[in-house]
Amino acid sequence: MTASEKAAVVEEPADQRGAGKEVEVTIDYLPATAAFQHEYPRTETLATVRTDAMVFFGVRDRQERDKYEYFLEFDGTRITNTSQTLGELVGPHKKKAEFHLVEQITPGSISK
Amino acid sequence: MSDAARRATLDGVRPAGREARESGAFWLGVREDIARVTVVVLPKGRGVEESIGQWRVSPEVFGEISRWAKPRGLTLLGIAHTHVRGIPPRLSWSDRHRSVCVPGILSVVIGNGGEDNDHYTWGWYVYDGDDYREILRPELTQRVRDNSTDPVEVLHADSERVWRLTS
Lengths: 112, 167
What we know:
The structure holds two protein chains of two kinds.
Chain A: H1 3-10, E1 22-29, E2 36-41, H2 46-57, E3 62-63, E4 67-74, E5 77-78, H3 86-90, E6 96-106
Parallel strand pairs in A: 1-6
Antiparallel strand pairs in A: 1-2, 3-4, 4-5, 4-6
Chain B: H1 3-17, E1 24-29, E2 37-43, E3 48-50, E4 55-57, H2 59-69, E5 75-82, H3 93-97, E6 106-110, E7 123-128, E8 131-134, H4 137-143, E9 153-157, E10 162-166
Parallel strand pairs in B: 2-9, 5-6
Antiparallel strand pairs in B: 1-2, 1-5, 3-4, 6-7, 7-8, 9-10
């Protein structure tokens, strides 16, 4: 491959240059050894991001005796509005977003 | 696990134990073939409930610890908590189900409100498959090594911050 061909491959279209169309997402989960990393369009909802991360970490929301739910945290704040898009959360310029996945267990009627 | 980590855990949980309340500690380190507990985090205050029947740590405290630990390459290796005097150091139903359920993670129960020094008297469990499995003495001897030379960092954490207790 020649240098000119390489340039043709990596060059962004003029209408996207610097527009920050993608957000590199990193999600950590305290008991996990590896972080979830994926690049999303700014239009992606946080619901999708959360679901993808849960699949990666092998966890899921569930209702047994207790209710188990997983939330994303961003800048120390729990995200409850998952219909929000990544772009709405991080703004138009940020290209990276770091989240933490945390678990909420709401006890049911039976306790020890 | 170093003697320092064991002592830090016991020192951290005993004040609540002496008031007949449960308490606990998070053990952090790098998960590898031989994983060393290099940090003991003692959740206290906001987002932490230490009561007679249970020790609960809010998701926000987990988040704070995660924010502190992950940039340092640390992972939650295990959670130790106490049972008050008269309650056997065995996982209860809620201990099994209202805790972190991730393969390989340790759950340790210290009896007598943390007054039991000998870690062989503690209840040791590992999450294996879809439930916690007790680690019995022969396996415990193999898997849990007392390395008295490793230093440990001791931290407090609540729902707003993590801070160093000693260095």
